[in-house]
Structure formats: structure tokens, C-alpha cells
Design a protein that fits this description.
Helices cover 37% and strands 17% of the residues. The protein is an alpha/beta fold. The chain has three domains: 178 residues, P-loop containing nucleotide triphosphate hydrolases (Rossmann fold, 3-Layer(aba) Sandwich), CATH 3.40.50; 84 residues, Helicase, Ruva Protein, domain 3, CATH 1.10.8.60; 204 residues, 2-Layer Sandwich (Ribosomal Protein S5, domain 2).
């Protein structure tokens, strides 16, 4: 057994030094440690850190072990598909070994380490059994004091082990296993948080790795912001660290060649090292034409603006949907159209418009899969704008699920969506009223820079979004978000 040395002030210092932001997550870890200090014999919960790649889930487990003085063991469960990987093999088999849990304890040399189960959402099932089912006993505080490993053939007490799991999403974790863990959401980083992380942690680390002194590589805040906005598009900071590593390697080469004392990153050097910008800053699509609305989408790499275009043409009432859409988004469009037809007179729409016209709704960036219910209010606004010939304000973005009754239901991913709106030059955001409490998770700078309108039903959204006179067009280039270039990472699915 390793004796715990729980000093909450020291633990808080360790967490602050290693991780910027994530206040709710760090507070929950400190609560976890405080309970351990007050009741060492208690059965603590199994924590599961869920968040996008590169936000620091694994390093949080390392910091927790360091804060309390325990040994640290990490086991990656990605692709594990054999139940024997967890419970071990019976010794009658040639090459029999204990399971990964017992092997991890053997490696640590103690029976109470911090045990990190990495990528628990990527377990697989095969003919060799279900490793997720085998983990049910490991991660249940009421059962794991008598854990049975086939290799040992005697019960082993795992109740003193501090288990922490990590995952990118909860949907693929088996329900019974998910029920045994306390889910802690690890949010994505805002751009200014990435700037601080790059300045405090990533850049000094990469400078040290290439053998230079910290004062020999000069990268201004403006250059860091340019790298964050133009060369990375992610929720975490892993790609950002790779770009800074490329700059530091170029700096090492320059210093070695020319015996220069200092390498200062300028505009030309940035393009020479990293190439032309991969992404352009997201700009709201400025338009004076009716039928175009700006929505907000969530993706695994953060929020994004979602533009919805609609048009009508002579026809017989056919609705066309294009843009690589999932079934849920198609159903949202049908629900929005049904509401418009039902309340046509109240909305100022000709009641017989579908008798002589077809409607076509398009979602640009057609190569990117899109699904989810929260584009409903945006589709409804675009349709009403088209049919009433009133343009949508180009400084407004919106999100929310709609019903046939006209209610607007709450949606997820509010923090990432609002950050995308702020980044894209949006001034006003329309949100479901039931999502108002989600604003507490936003950085203060973003909250104060935007005007939030909370709505209960669709007609309230129209009052804010539509205008008889188009909003003034800011002097910015007309541009759609660049979804990447050939050779860059494939863009993940967007959930509206």
C-alpha cells in the first residue's frame, strides 16, 4: 500500500500548473480528494472524463496521482476485444497471463495506485467475449473487493485502487458500464485559452525539446493567434503543439546554420514553415437575399457556423434537401415546413404556395456529413424568410430543436456553438430558453461580447431574426468557412 499524502492546497497548485482553465473539472477532482482525506476507508466513485481529443484528460489522471503521492498506471482499452484481457487466462493454457488490471498492479508494485483506463469508449466485442462486461465487476465499488482473475483463481481486493476512465463520447460505452461511473465533461478550449496554454506550456516545452533556450525563440502573441486560427481547427491543443514543434525545429536549424542568437517568427517565416493557411477565420455569410440563415453546429473538434440556403422554383410541392444530411436533420426540415404550412396565414405566407412551387433547402459544405435535430429553428427561419421575402439579419445565428406545435426544445453543445458564433463575427445568438443555464460555462469575455435571446417558440425567434431592412454589412470579405485542403485531416461529422 502507498500512503496517501493529500494536501488540498498542494493538489490545487499541481492541477493549476499543469492545466489551464477546466475549473469545473478541477473542482470535482479536489472534492474527490477532500472526501478521500476525510474518509480514507470510503468507497469513492469511479470518475469518467469525457471530452474531445487533446484537451488533457490523460494528463489530468497523471496530475491526480502526483498530487496525492500514489503510483500511476495507464492501460489503453482501445480495440481490446477479448474478455481475457481483463480477467486473464486460466493457467491450463500455454502462455497464460493475468489480465491487464492485475498486470498493472504488478507493474506499479502497490495495490492502491491511480489506475487510468484510457479510451474506454473504444472497447470492442468479438467471439472471444465482451471486455466491457468483464469491466462491470472491476468498476463497481460494491463488487470489486472480491474481483476474480482467472489466472490467480483467488479473489483480489481492488477497492483501494483509484480508477479513472477517459472517453471521447459516452454513446459507445455499454449502458451498464456507463451507469457505474460518474461522467465528468471536459470541455473544449476557447481561442484565448489556447493562446495562454501555448504561451505557458506548449512553446516552452517544444523549445526545450530542440535544445534551445526559451529566450532564443521569439513568437509574438499575434503570431500565436494566427497559428491557432489559420493552421488548426480542433477542440484541444494537440495539433497546435505539432505546429509549434515544426516552428521550433525550423528555429533550431536556423540557429545552427547561422549561429544566430535569436530566431524571431515573422509572417514570411510562418508561411515558409507551415505553408499557406489551411483554414480561414469563420465569417458570417453576409447576404441581403431572403432565404439564407446562419445556424450553429457542434463537431468533435469544436463548434462551427452552419449556413442554410433555401430557394423556390415552379413545381408541384416537392421538397428537396441536399448537403449530405442524416435522417434526423431531414425530419427537422419536414417538421419546419409542416409548421409553416399550418400557420401560413399568421406568418404572412401564401397558403397555396406548395401547389405551384418546389422548395429546395441546401446545406453548404456538402462533403461534410451533418445530422442532429438542432438545426430545426434555423431551417424554419430560412423557409419563412424565403416565403415572406424578408431577409434574415446577417449578424444573428441560432440553434434549437423544433416541434410541430412550434415549441423550441433545448439542445447540446452550447458552449462550443457560442464560441463559434463569437469567432465568426456574430453579434446576437438565439437559444432555447431551457439552455439559459448553459451560459455559466462560457468564458466571461464571450458572454459580455454577445447578445443572447432566449425563446420558447418559433414566432419569438422570427421577431429577432427577420428584419424588413437588411442589417448593415460589415466591411469583411465575403467568404465561407474553409473546410480544409487536400491532404489535411478529414472533417468530422457536424451535429447541428
Amino acid at each position: 500500500m502507498t500512503e496517501d499524502h493529500i494536501d488540498l492546497e498542494d493538489a490545487e497548485r499541481v492541477l493549476e500548473e499543469g492545466h489551464y482553465g477546466m475549473n469545473k473539472v478541477k473542482r470535482r477532482v479536489l472534492e474527490f480528494l477532500a472526501i478521500r482525506k476525510l474518509n480514507p476507508e470510503g468507497k469513492g466513485p469511479i470518475l469518467c472524463l469525457v471530452g474531445p481529443p487533446g484537451v488533457g484528460k490523460t494528463s489530468l489522471g497523471t496530475a491526480l496521482a502526483s498530487a496525492i503521492g500514489r503510483k500511476f498506471v495507464r492501460v489503453s482499452l482501445g480495440g481490446v476485444r477479448d474478455e481475457a484481457e481483463i480477467r486473464g487466462h486460466r493457467r491450463t493454457y500455454v502462455g497464460a497471463l493475468p489480465g491487464r488490471v492485475i498486470a498493472g498492479l504488478k507493474k506499479a508494485g502497490t495495490r492502491n495506485p491511480v489506475f487510468l483506463l484510457d479510451e474506454i469508449d473504444k472497447l470492442a466485442t468479438s467471439l472471444q467475449g465482451d471486455p466491457g462486461a468483464a469491466l462491470l465487476e472491476v468498476l463497481d465499488p460494491e463488487q470489486n473487493h472480491t474481483f476474480s482473475d482467472h489466472y490467480l483463481e483467488v479473489p483480489f481486493d481492488l477497492s483501494k485502487v483509484m480508477f479513472i476512465a477517459t472517453a471521447n463520447q459516452t454513446e459507445t460505452i455499454p449502458p451498464a458500464l456507463r451507469d457505474r461511473m460518474e461522467i465528468i465533461e471536459v470541455p473544449s478550449y476557447a481561442p484565448f485559452e489556447k493562446l495562454v496554454i501555448a504561451r505557458r506550456h506548449l512553446l516552452p516545452k517544444q523549445v526545450k525539446l530542440v535544445g534551445l533556450r526559451e529566450d532564443q525563440v521569439v513568437v509574438s502573441d499575434d503570431m500565436l493567434v494566427r497559428i491557432i486560427e489559420s493552421y488548426t481547427r480542433e477542440a484541444g491543443v494537440r495539433k497546435l503543439e505539432q505546429q509549434l514543434a515544426a516552428i521550433c525545429r525550423a528555429a533550431a536549424l536556423e540557429v545552427s546554420r547561422t549561429d544566430a542568437e535569436v530566431f524571431e517568427l515573422g509572417e514570411e517565416a510562418l508561411i515558409d514553415i507551415l505553408g499557406t493557411p489551411r483554414y480561414h477565420p469563420e465569417l458570417a455569410m453576409r447576404t441581403r437575399r431572403p432565404g439564407v440563415a446562419t445556424g450553429l453546429a457542434w463537431t468533435p473538434v469544436g463548434g462551427d457556423l452552419l449556413f442554410i440556403e433555401s430557394t423556390r422554383m415552379p413545381g408541384k410541392g416537392h421538397l428537396s434537401l441536399t448537403g449530405h444530411l442524416g435522417d434526423v436533420m431531414k425530419e427537422s426540415a419536414q417538421a419546419a415546413l409542416a409548421y409553416v404550412r399550418t400557420h401560413a396565414r399568421e406568418l404572412g405566407v401564401p397558403e397555396d404556395f406548395l401547389e405551384r412551387e418546389d422548395i429546395h433547402i441546401h446545406f453548404p459544405a456538402g462533403g461534410v456529413p451533418k445530422d442532429g435535430p438542432s438545426a430545426g429553428v434555423t431551417i424554419f427561419t430560412a423557409l419563412t424568410s424565403l416565403l415572406t421575402e424578408r431577409p434574415v439579419r446577417n449578424d444573428v445565428a441560432m440553434t434549437g430543436e423544433v416541434t410541430l406545435r412550434g415549441d423550441i426544445l433545448p439542445v447540446g453543445g452550447i458552449k462550443e456553438k457560442v464560441l463559434a458564433a463569437h469567432r465568426g463575427g456574430i453579434h446576437r445568438v438565439i437559444l432555447p430558453a431551457q439552455n439559459e443555464h448553459d451560459l455559466r460555462d462560457l468564458p466571461e469575455g464571450t458572454r459580455s461580447a454577445l447578445d443572447f435571446v432566449f425563446v420558447h417558440e418559433m414566432r419569438e425567434a422570427l421577431e429577432v431574426a427577420l428584419s424588413d431592412e437588411p442589417a448593415p454589412v460589415p466591411e469583411v470579405p465575403v467568404s465561407l468557412p474553409d473546410k480544409g485542403v487536400s491532404g489535411s485531416d478529414s472533417t468530422p461529422q457536424a451535429n447541428a
